[in-house]
Amino acid sequence: MTEPLLSVQNLRIELNTRDGVAPVIDDFSFDLFPGEAISFVGESGCGKSMTALGIMGLLPDGVGKIASGSINFAGEDLATADDKRLRNIRGNEISMIFQEPMTSLNPVYTIGEQIAEVLRAHQGLSRQASWSKAIELLDAVRIPNPQARVSDYPFQMSGGQRQRVMIAIALACEPKILIADEPTTALDVTVQAQIFDLLNDLRKQTGTAIILITHDMGAVAEMAERMIVMYAGRKVEEGPVQQVIDNAGHPYTQGLISCVPHILEKLTTERQTLQEVPGIVPSLRDFGKDQCLFATRCKYVSEKCNNVRPTEIEFESSQTVACWHTERKQ
Amino acid sequence: MNNEDQYVVKARHPFAEAFEMFSKNIAAVIALIILFLIILVAIFGPTLYPVDPFDMVWMPFSPPGEEGFIFGTDYLGRDLVAMIIHGARVSIIIGVSAAFVTVFIGVSVGAMAGFYRGWVEEVLMRITEFFQVLPTLLFAMVIVALFGASLTMITIAIGAVSWTAVARITRAEFLRIRELEYVTASRASGANNFILMFGIILPNALPPIIVQAALMVGSAILFEAGLSFLGLTDPNVVSWGQVIGSNRSYLLDAGFTVTIPGAAIFITVLCISLVGDGLNDALNPKLRQR
Q1: ipTM of the complex in this document
Q2: Chain A stretch 66-95, residues whose beta carbon is closer than 8 A to a beta carbon of chain B
Q3: At what angle do helices B256-283 and B80-116 cross, to 10 degrees?
Q4: Which of B4, B118, B187 sits opposite A58 (nearest CB)?
Q5: Gap from B100 CA to chain A (nearest CA, Å)
Q6: What local confidence, expressed as pLDDT, does residue A174 receive?
């Protein structure tokens, strides 16, 4: 297999809380290969966005920090890189799009200025060249009539259009990695599908690797090749999307998949009752404990789960699971 | 698709919208016109009415209208019209440049405190509070008395005592805006701290600062009048406060020598306040719905 583009090893991110230091990300490792799309899945508060911010070096000052582990990107460790180097990488080699397209564009500048600014800062383009490149990019993200829209202000655009502009800004410098932090959560379903189509097409054209952060299983199935299921700051399952959906190893993954509703062909067909995962994510205080953090919500819970943190085992080929009750197949 | 072009809405800058709001406020528009006239008088008055304000032109204390002197003469027989015209120049120059100094110091301090947080904020805000508790007029008098009563020194003195309000407003806006998602988004696209502070956050923090700066012009004019009333002024230039100060002993005999420059100050400051109020309504989105 080829060299990974981004290799995160044993990452631990600590957050200062009122009760002391809590590891929001604990011993988290993954590889991202060039041109690949992977997805982080999990419910709110399980550390998906924190991982993304950690990779970008954007953890909130004084509150969060990378305590140990490494983030290898093109032979460089981003966990220890200085601020100047990180600024150079951000937006240029790794860029990010955010959840809220309504608030992630600066209201006082035209969208053209905002796209051109990134190009001028990272690629040293002239004012004129960056402006015409901005029009090209707007065309690439399928904004109709880009010549006129380029001098629009964000408030003149709809949510879907703003997210397209965000994508244009993120892809302006042809980054190697695009981190999409719940890019469609604030958009309605038809627009979601368009944004995913757009991201897929752009990925084919530019070969940018994508990390999609989401809690939407439908989005995962549509976009990603591999998925990493996260729970309470730890990786609980990793594997190819179709394989994991068909045959999930971890009880949490099974729960996530069974709570997605399906549209039935005939209305008369008997519907399966939706399964919810009972309980809530443990509080930050409990994050560092040497136990399975899912134990409080798990129906298979045993003595061992409460006392020892489960190790990752290979469940099927290229699918790993961290659970004491999952038996290796064959 | 060619017919798409006709549906294109022309881009309007948020400030263009604010201008429209402002023009709906009749009092503010009238005040702006009067202010504009005062500025015209200050610029072209001395050439159109070439009377030296320091020359004795007629008998002292001649009431307004006598011998063609519209505002009369003061206790040294100087033409009050010429004094008001020249005084307008000084008042407006001091008002605008003191407001500029105020905004410059206030925005720098407030931006640093609000952006960097932590010990930078602590130190800067304690300094701000220190300046806030000083009695302003007294402190300005000390500066002027120590370093000499030139226009530059008076401007600096006024700036030094009144920047705290701007610093606090700027800091508050920075604290609010730095947490917004577009700031994180700019950070994620590689902007450095300088660009974040002055390119991204400051333009969004401007509306309340503009309002405060407009009001600052008015209070700087009042401040200058107060200082020159007390005699702390450049004796080589005429200012409105100085005219009031030098004629104050004759208040009961020739009231007009005090009330005319007083009215000039009153009208100018009132107009500035009305314009500032209009700007506040226009730039504050929460008041737009009214």
Answers
A1: 0.79
A2: 87-92, 95
A3: 30
A4: B187
A5: 23
A6: 86
